[in-house]
Structure formats: structure tokens, C-alpha cells
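#lab-general

N.A. 3:47 PM
ok so I finally got the sequence cleaned up, no stray characters, all 170 residues accounted for. can someone with queue access submit it? mine expired

B.Y. 3:52 PM
send it over

N.A. 3:53 PM
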Amino acid sequence: MAISNRKLSRVRTMLALTLVLTTVSILSNQVYAGMCLPPPEQGAWEHRDSDTQGITKLNFRMECRNVSTTTCSGDICSVTIGAVEAHYIIHLWADCGPLTDCDWGERGGVSLTGSLDGWYHFHYDHGFAKRYVYAGTHPDYPDRLRLYMWTDFVDPDRTDYASDDWYVRR
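B.Y. 4:20 PM
back already:
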């Protein structure tokens, strides 16, 4: 069973295109991730009061993820290269008792805009309470991170509350 020259040419073209797209994808992951600038909030932070009964420490990071796309129609493909998207992640630990911290885990969040520009919003759902977490630094105090958290209890007999605390770099 012989393959026609036309089919062989199409196979070679598709293999070459696949190789080019794979190379571009690998290179763009390396090159474009470096184009994102980490925000001043990035890093490890601890509560300025070591005796706090709230959030004792946190880690804040930004990841740049390649969101380049490849669209094909028949044998023709086009690639959008250079598209990156920032993803913000916070990891919280809270006081659980003498010398013990509870790991709340990581949550993804969003960068806020408008009148809340410079703040990042995250959400924790512990079942018995929902916690709305806002983190940000002030331009005049880049070595201090402010963490505002609203706790909304499911039980209507429990009083919701806010905490507003400052953290220093670890």
C-alpha cells in the first residue's frame, strides 16, 4: 500500500507545524512568565503581634500563566503568542492554641480595581463560616501588609465580625 506524494507532503507539513508549535509553546512559557512583575505583597509575612489570636502568618504569591492559544481550521493554524495572565494566591495560618497554628490552605484570588485598586480579594469557606479576605500594601509602607477579613457565620446566633491587622516580612 503506497502513500501518494500529496498525502506524504501533507503529513510532513503537519509534523513540521506540530514541531514548530511545540517549540513556540515551550519557549513562550519560559520567556513570557518573566514578563510579569511581582506585586509588593509577594512574599512571606507574619503578624506584627506574636500573641495574636487571629491569622499568625501568610504567604502571598503571584503566578504568571501562559494563556496563549492555538486555533486551527483544517490545515491552517494560528497561534496567539505572548498572552500571560496573573494569578494571585494566598496561604493563611491561624492561631489554634498555645504554640500551634492551623493551616487554612491556599486560595486563589483576584486583583481589585477602581476604588479598591491595590487590594486583592480571597475567599475561604470553612462550612460554619465564610471569610472574605482582603490583602494589600500601602505605597508609603511597602514592608507592611494589611489584611482585612470579614467573617460571616452561617449560624444566625453567632455575631459576624471583622479583623484588620498588619503584617511584617518574615
